[in-house]
Amino acid sequence: MTATVPGDRAAAELPFFVYGTLLPGEPNHDLFLRGRTARERPAVLPRALLYDGPGYPYAIDGHGRVHGTLLVAAPGVYGELLGLLDHLEEFLGPGHPRNLYERVVREVELPYGAELPAERELPTEREPPVEGERPAGEDVPAEEEPGAGETVRAWVYLAATAVTRSLRTGGVLIPGGRWVTGRTPGGPDTA
Q1: Which residues are known catalytic residues?
Q2: Model confidence over 111-147: pLDDT tens digits?
């Protein structure tokens, strides 16, 4: 439930859980994820709270649930995607004092009944796969793909320590743990 030691092979290619501007339909989705994901599924981060930020949300540990999407990197682009997301989220390394977010490993839930309509296979402009690799967008075999109602270990960007402290003392909690653009900060969801 804590950050994984850098270089830990078990966390080397975990999927990513996103909950804000990287969600499908949000501004950073196409900018950072287009052609870099093989699969996207609705997911929930338990034991977390979602707070409003300056145009993007922050998740922190807490007694709630955050709704988002679980992303699986396309074959051959994991390192590139990890670097892009670390840069976007201003993650400089575990515990770095200038981090905006910390990249940590958490258990993420795949809700029942959500996998079929919301699964997305994204078009890609990648070269043909190397022998033994799955082409981008190709389904993961059932024996390798977790089913709905299961939990999956994933990378999650949580607010860094100083940001978390500020949110707990004066932040605006997002009711229901669901990021929705177009809503008034601190106000009810409009979608």
Answers
A1: 89
A2: 875 543 334 443 333 334 334 443 444 444 434 455 5
The half-sphere exposure of 111 on its side-chain side, counting CA atoms within 13 A, is 16
3-class SS string, the chain: CCCCCCCCHHHCCCCEEECCCCCCCCHHHHHHHCCCEEEEEEEEEEEEEEEECCCCEEEEEEEEEEEEEEEEECCCCHHHHHHHHHHHCCCCCCCCCCCCEEEEEEEEECCCCCHHHHCECCCCCCCCCCCCCCCCCCCCCCCCCCCCCCEEEEEEEEECHHHHHHHHHHCCECHHHCCCCCCCCCCCCCC
Q: Can you read off the two tokens belonging to residue 154?
A: 């994933």
Nearest to 70 by CA among 94, 40, 96: 40
Kindly report, residue by residue over 1-52, the tens digit of the pLDDT. 344 444 444 457 999 999 999 999 998 999 999 999 999 999 999 999 999 9
The pLDDT tens digits for 2-12 are 444 444 444 57
Angle at 108 between CA 105 and CA 111, to 5 degrees: 170
What does the alpha-carbon distance between residue 186 and residue 191 come to, in Å, rounded to a whole number? 14
Give me the count of residues in the chain: 191
Q: What is the pTM of this model?
A: 0.74
